[in-house]
Amino acid sequence: DIQMTQSPSTLSASVGDRVTITCRASQSISRWLAWYQQKPGKAPELLIYKASTLENGVPSRFSGSGSGTEFTLTINSLQPADFATYYCQQYDDYSATFGQGTKVEIK
Amino acid sequence: QVQLQQWGAGLLKPSETLSLTCAVDGGSFSGYYWSWIRQPPGKGLDWIGEINHSGSTNYKPSFRGRVTMSVDTSKNQVSLKLTSVTAADTAVYFCARGRIPARFKNAFDLWGQGTMVTVSS
Fold first, then answer.
1. B-chain residues near A1 (CB < 8 A)
2. Residue B17 CA to chain centroid, in angstroms?
3. Are the beta carbons of B105 and A93 separated by less than 8 Å?
4. Are A31 and A23 a contacting pair, CB within 8 Å?
5. Does residue B108 contact residue A46 with C-beta atoms inside 8 Å?
6. Are A10 and A103 in contact (CB under 8 A)?
7. Looking at the partner chain, which of B107, B111, B113 has a beta carbon nearest the beta carbon of A89?
8. First and final CA of chain A: distance in angstroms?
9. Across the interface, do A96 and B47 touch by the CB < 8 Å criterion?
10. Which of B82, B63, B100, B111 has the alpha carbon at shortest distance from B8?
């Protein structure tokens, strides 16, 4: 399996902050990377696919970048609705794998 | 608005078989791959495998031998069976749609509500 490693595991931030989450793959996955947001008790929601393409309906304060083995998710001007856990997922391999998650909490 | 509705037994004893079903309501069923993904309490997401409308499957190697996915095109439903469950299989199980039709290896753009399955003697 391709291993996905996110950092940090927890991030404390305030409303209005710019936050960045990093996801590293154990081998090159080109740009086959997605980002999800998950709130407690809910299913994950797709934010970004193919490393940088915003899913329909996702606010433009979310952006993604990267290729190969290193990727970032950036949230500009953090909003109250953005406090959640974020996961990256690779889909270059026939077995999809996820990062361990990054919890964005209120400072 | 396409929705995924899932259901199944929530409490199992060790060695029993987990059985869940996911119905696609309000949208296209054929042409997509449908995955099962689980999440142990307080932990991350673990992809189990996927199936398409014609029954072609792709299972994560660590589940092969225990997992069977099936499809009922007349009802727009996919099902998951996982045999010989242990406490380690306790998790919320989600069904999800692969974003790009007719393709393995996908991001997941539509998710079911999740079903909590607890394995306990």
1. 60
2. 14
3. yes
4. no
5. yes
6. yes
7. B107
8. 35
9. yes
10. B82
Residue B54 region, left (φ>0) first, then alpha (ψ -120 to 50), else beta? alpha
Q: In what order do the strands lie in the sheet with B67-72?
A: B3-8, B18-25, B77-82, B67-72
What type of residue is B66?
A: R
Sheet strands (E) in chain A: 4-7, 10-13, 19-25, 33-38, 45-49, 53-54, 62-67, 70-75, 85-90, 97-98, 102-106
Q: Provide the sign of the torsion angle of the four alpha carbons B71, A36, A79, B43, taken in this order.
A: positive
Average pLDDT over residues B101-114: 93
User: Which 3-state string (H, E, C) describes B29-93?
Assistant: CCCCEEEEEEECCCCCCEEEEEEECCCCEEECHHHCCCEEEEEECCCCEEEEEECCCCHHHCEEE
**pLDDT tens string B22-62:** 999 988 888 899 999 999 999 999 999 999 989 999 999 99
In 10 A of CB A52, how many CB atoms?
17
Residue A80: φ, ψ to 5°? -55, -35
The Cα B58–Cα B52 span in angstroms is 9
SS3 state at A81? helix
Q: List, for chain A, all residue ranges whose pLDDT scores fall below the cut of 70.
A: none
Whole-angstrom distance, CA of residue B39 vs CA of residue A38: 12
Given A55, A92, A97, which is nearest B47 (Cβ)? A97
A59-68 exposure pattern, b = at least 16 Cβ within 10 A, e = fewer: eeebbbebee
